[in-house]
Fold:
Amino acid sequence: MKKILIAATVALSFAGSSFAVEIAGGTAATTTAIGTITAPIVVATAVGVGVLGAVVANTSGSTTITEVVCGDGETLVGGVCVADPDPTCNGSDPLVDGVCTGTSTTVTGTITGTGTGTGTMTSTITVPVTFTYLPSL
Amino acid sequence: MNVKILTLSTLILMFTSACSGTHHAYYQTLKIAFSTHKDTKLTLFEVQQSDIDLISVKRGERPVAIMALAYLENDQHKWISRDKAMLTMEKGRIVRTLGLTENLLYLSNTDLDPLKSLSNLATAKKQSHQQVWSRISDRVGDEYGYPIESIFSQAKQVTVHTSNLNIDAILYIELVSYSAPANYLRLNRNWENYFWYAKSGELIKSRQIISPLSEPLEITYLSRIARLNQ
Structure:
């Protein structure tokens, strides 16, 4: 019985010995490793055929460039003609020849006069002023 | 290599002679396509000096890389690469991968993997009959529960050349068949995995393909070989 136990112990110690001499590095193992096993592989033949095809296409092909011309009231935006937006003036200001005319500003003044009698009269004068500005789009 | 340089030179001459403004782009593309990367190699001395166990891994057509043993837990060896890909192995069998484009998520029935008894060569010699092993694998890409069957061939005496050493080894070939019906055309449903054991019973090299669409992984256990030759 004793011999069996000793033999079993020896067998178990040998069974565990396969790991005993091996050394694991934990997280430090990454820095010990060299090279990559995940790098993408470029298939040279496929690239060669692709480049050859590109060369053939570039040398034998022709390209016609069509210039886009927009009509009146349109602007070329990203290769597409887009209708110009309507210009607007502030309030009811009229738009004449692409320019807005405003009249809302007033200038006031005071005139004081003395007559032959004993009275004094004061009068305020309002002067309309026009100005022009560009309409907003 | 010479054929590649000749082809590259010819193509460059052809393309640049056309006075094309894009010839530089062609040149750069071809330069990348035909560039070759060197394998990473360590001398026996460098391997012996390493504080951590090392393996060399060649995945598909990529150059050889060195992976280090990160963890030994639950009877699994977890090897990590510089680019943080991980191979988890049980007695040399890849049972889980991380960080690759197509990862093995799960492998069932690993307790009955013949590799676990093959490593004990004394036992293996007694097992003269062919060993069959069935398992189910889950892979990234909606491939879950795919059955795989394999049969191990009789062992052969061979010599493994690595680290400038010739090592007498015993080679086991695993004939693998992917028996699941595929949703699309799949030609390579059968392949072979190779496992080389030193006479002392330690696995020193293997070449495994995880699934029909996977690239082969050739693994050489550098530290084990170094210890065998101390």
